[in-house]
Design brief:
The protein is mainly alpha-helical and 564 residues long. The chain has two domains: 248 residues, MetI-like fold, CATH 1.10.3720; 179 residues, MetI-like (MetI-like fold, Orthogonal Bundle), CATH 1.10.3720.10. 73% of the residues lie in helices and 2% in strands. The protein has 26 helices and four strands. Strand 3 and strand 4 form a beta hairpin. The protein is globular, with a radius of gyration of 26 Å. The two termini are 32 Å apart.
Length: 564
């Protein structure tokens, strides 16, 4: 066995065993727990849950509002993406819109509900500006608005990026052939993006169906399945067996979603080339899209503007006088500072460890000569991870690791975060590694370097931009997540999002917004840092390593010339 084969097999075994132990085993245990009844093993819990009015109502509510929200979000995301690609909107407006739309991705979902309350409630900012409350905030309408704001950014990114790979010259061809505007739209923009549109829809549906933060803050009497699961597991009378059944039920839409996504891939178009297309000015068209952009931006600003106001006034809405006392009072609480430090530590370790694990798995798939079954296993791991909602993962962890040394530790939070967010970074780096020159490792071996040294010296530096994106993805998501860790954080391992959940119970909303701002600015700084790092032509360490590599190559070449 050569060195390369040994190291890649070690990577394969490590990733496989890690996921078998921390994902396969907990899920299997969860399924087993769901079958446990007072009289032994059977389907009694399933029968009880499926006839439980509270569960059926929660499931129906979750499905209905998620489907409606996903339809609205996908349509809005398509209009935004279409408008940015096929109109003559000024570049500054385009940049500003993207900035506003991306802002929610840096905030925990639990904050959205509080922001809607403080904006559209009876004493809310928007209510005061317009003179009356626009809609009931607790229940259906508050959930719908919050879910749209929550899921629009990722849906928009999916469709905006997909538009880059459409040959827009077909628009000109369609017009020359005399097609109606609707047929032109269908044939040149909608039809080629059916796969991406379905992906955006499923992504939006999945995020809202499984989210815990928004329903717990603004759901009211409109019960959602995520809240029902939380009450079963953490209520006054915990019922782990029936809670396990609800968790298993939440897996069904996830599995169906992944199957639909794989099916819809066949509808994606493959163009031989992507032609440049000069968009002509149109006052009516550009004006209409400009109004839509303004409406979306206004919605986002209306929801989140209050978050930047409450921490800087004496008492909202009764004493809206500018002061830093609220900010100082909240930040002087050592317990909140400790929670913030905990979050930074968990997010940082999650980013580094998660990136290393994804990189190892992707190397097995994209840069190894291991058999195809090993590579399939890596893809299956990513697919399975993608189907497990955060709350289900948390329930699975608490059901198997309670009473063990892992219970209520930072380690369990980090592991949960890595598993929860594994899929996207894995696909990122797998794509990058697949596109690199396949002969680099072989060249390194011929020069006398080990496979690992070549990877460190050549492969990793050439994938630096993707690595930075992976680090950013893990860090930001670890800072904002709550669904995956709400069951796992203890008193000493509390992070900001779980602290916000606690502050909600005591109605300390000024502290909620201060912590939300901390998360927001931390994520903005982290994202900016990783983006700048990715843009650097050379990082000092890489430069040193590359110079050493070149020096070694020159020495070898000199020796070969002497021999000749």
């Amino acid at each position: 066995m050569n060195r390369k084969s040994f190291e890649l097999k070690f990577c394969f075994l490590f990733v496989s065993i890690a996921f078998a132990f921390f994902l396969g085993l907990p899920l299997a245990n969860l399924a087993y727990k769901s079958l446990q009844t007072g009289s032994g093993t059977g389907l009694g819990n399933y029968a009880a849950i499926l006839t439980d009015d509270a569960f059926l109502t929660a499931f129906r509510n979750s499905f209905a509002i998620s489907a409606l929200e996903a339809a609205i979000t996908t349509a809005a995301a398509f209009i935004l993406a279409y408008g940015l690609h096929l109109t003559r909107i000024p570049g500054k407006i385009e940049e500003g819109l993207q900035l506003v739309v991306m802002m929610p991705m840096f905030l925990p979902s639990i904050t959205y509900g509080f922001a809607v309350i403080y904006s559209f409630g009876k004493q809310g900012l928007i209510t005061k500006l317009v003179g009356e409350q626009l809609f009931p905030i607790y229940g259906f309408w508050g959930l719908l608005i919050s879910f749209i704001v929550y899921t629009l950014p990722p849906a928009f990114l999916v469709l905006y990026n997909a538009f880059f790979y459409i040959d827009k010259n077909f628009i000109t061809v369609s017009k020359i052939m005399g097609d109606s505007p609707l047929r032109t739209l269908w044939m040149t923009s909608v039809r080629p993006l059916l796969g991406s549109l379905m992906a955006a829809f499923i992504l939006s549906f999945f995020l809202s169906f499984t989210d815990f933060g928004i329903p717990v803050s603004i759901g009211g009497e409109y019960n959602m399945i995520a809240v029902e699961l939380y009450m079963k597991m953490m209520g006054a009378l915990p019922d782990f067996e029936r809670g396990s059944v609800i968790a298993m039920a939440m897996l069904v839409p996830s599995v169906i979603s992944v199957m639909l996504l794989r099916y819809m891939e066949k509808f994606n178009f493959r163009y031989n080339k992507i032609s440049r297309y000069e968009v002509q000015r149109s006052f009516m068209r550009d004006g209409a899209f400009g109004l839509f952009f303004a409406a979306v931006a206004l919605l986002f600003v209306s929801v989140f503007a209050i978050m930047f106001i409450v921490p800087f006034v004496k008492s909202w809405p009764y004493q809206p006088v500018f002061t830093l006392d609220t900010l100082k009072r909240v930040l002087s609480d050592n317990s909140l500072v400790d929670v913030y430090v905990n979050s930074l530590m968990v997010a940082g370790i999650t980013a580094v460890a998660g990136t290393v694990l994804c990189y190892a798995a992707a190397m097995v798939n994209a840069r190894s000569d291991l058999n195809k079954y090993c590579k399939i296993i890596m893809d299956v791991i990513a697919m399975v991870t993608n189907t497990v909602p955060g709350m289900v993962l948390g329930v699975a962890f608490i059901s198997i690791f309670s009473g063990t040394p892992l219970q209520s530790t930072f380690a369990i939070l980090i592991i949960a975060n890595i598993l929860h967010f594994f899929t996207t970074p894995y696909l990122m780096i797998k794509s990058s590694l697949s596109k690199m020159n396949e002969s680099w490792e072989t060249t390194g071996l011929l020069m006398g370097d080990t496979w690992l040294k070549t990877v460190i010296k050549v492969v990793i530096p050439n994938s630096r931009a993707t690595i930075c994106q992976m680090l950013s993805y893990f860090f930001v998501n670890a800072m904002v997540t709550i669904s995956a860790i709400v069951f796992l954080a203890g008193a000493r391992t509390m992070v900001i999002t779980t602290k916000i959940k606690e502050l909600q119970y005591f109605e300390k909303f000024d502290a909620v917004f201060v912590l939300s701002l901390l998360i927001f600015f931390t994520n903005v700084v982290a994202k900016t840092f990783f983006d700048k790092l990715a843009e650097q032509e050379e990082i000092p360490l890489y430069k040193k390593i590359k110079n050493l590599f070149k020096a070694k190559e020159k020495i070898k070449n000199g020796k070969e010339q002497e021999l000749q």
